[in-house]
Here is the input.
Amino acid sequence: MPQLSYARYGKDNVRVYKVQRNEDGTQDVTEMTVCTLLEGDIAESWTKADNKNIVATDTQKQTVYVMAKLHPVNPPELFASILANHFLKQYSHISVAHVSVIVHRWTRLVVDGQPHPHSFLRDGDETRTVNVVARREKGTKVTSGIKGLLVLKSTGSQFWGFHRDEYTRLPETTDRILSTEVEASWVWDEYANLDDIQRDQGVFNETWNKARSITLDTFAKENSPSVQNTMYLMSEQILAAAPKVQSVDYTLPNKHYFEIDLSWFDGLKNTGKDAEVYAPQSDPNGLIQSTVTRDGASFTSS
Ligand SMILES: O=c1[nH]c(=O)c2[nH]c(=O)[nH]c2[nH]1
Here is the structure.
């Protein structure tokens, strides 16, 4: 007999914008994309065509809008937790609520040397990410992150001493271009309830800013021996800076820039120390991933 061994459902790509009108006449804006997914006593919709326990995905979407009106949307960790816990409170047959939030950049414009009160710039595709899983009677797991942060350094990166055998063609290098699109996330110690998350709300923005600076500073300053080592140094520093973070994940593509031999054209020198013109590669790319946990924390790869 086939069995429904896992099911969840919800609304993805719910786009929400909220404005905050401040007393001094300035305005703040937040634009986000939300995904909600619910688990619980819902199997009979799949197996018996009985929808009585189905909170329609449209209802979930309307709830996102109502919660965004009734509650702060910043920090996104708090908003996602409010939303997830609302689903558990409102629907006794729902046992797990997953909420993810992607916050898009709207950076205040500087006009005539002054921050403009109500005009903003989309300065890049980088997003702030939050993933919350609230389990009935078990607490709320919050994961925060950065995605789409594209960086490049034109020197200060090496890669040598790697394993060589009959399949190896890559030469060793002590000076190469390093470029990656940072995806980083950090998992918070599990929260027992929404009040604890509310109490901690200041720490989420602070940690996001620190994680972003650590990522950028380490990328720029280290003479990197490998993407692997660089991401480990970043992870260690985030754990040191945020005592309530239990683990840090990085996913870093290695976006290659190939040297071009132009010696066929009048003996032009464009390799090694003479390399100036390179061919950026869209694919394939290296892909380096790791999870760094605090001492004693266990981890099983999925
Ligand atoms: O930093 C790197 N790590 C690797 O594992 C690797 N492999 C490769 O071809 N280039 C690189 N660079």
Q: What stands out?
A: The chain has six helices and twelve strands. The first helix runs from residue 43 to 47.
